[in-house]
Amino acid sequence: RDSGFFVTYNHATWSRERYPEYTNYHGMHAMEIMNGGRMSINYDEYNPRVYDDILSVGERIYCIGADDNHSKSDIGISWIYINAEHLEYREITGALLEGNFYTSSAPEIYELTYEDGKIRIKTSPAQKIICAYDIRKAGGAVAEEGTFVTEAEFTKPDGAGYFRITVTDGQGRHACTNAYFFDELEK
For residue 71, how many other CB atoms are within 10 A of its CB? Predict the structure, then answer.
């Protein structure tokens, strides 16, 4: 990181590391919440719990998805959508460093806002939209049988320090936002 690299903790399941190990890593920009390459060879490499564990020890990092590409069979399984004006190196790297992206294996997030204690999101058709916090509360919008949800609104619960949202489509694929910290949003 001191040399200008974007530092990530990758494939937590495949690495076989445990809570005491990965919660002692510091200074990372992000962790890999999903790794398509490992998922393609039957590892459960979707790791939202690891992300919450790292956040719970005070690290403010982002979550990424990548394919960890080693062959043609593990391309296009997980990626990040970057919010940048132009497809230029400085804008892309700036968006990464500022957390202006989300991770996906298919679902799309079209809009995400926070204002006056309300979190609002609009997405591609989803089976469910879950808003997780750093406390024992969560918000959810779940589609009824044969339908989809495409938007949701959640109210900040008392005592919450951050929120992050997971969108799950009808095939069980996910889109994950980075964690957003209320103390930064409410400045």
Answer: 10
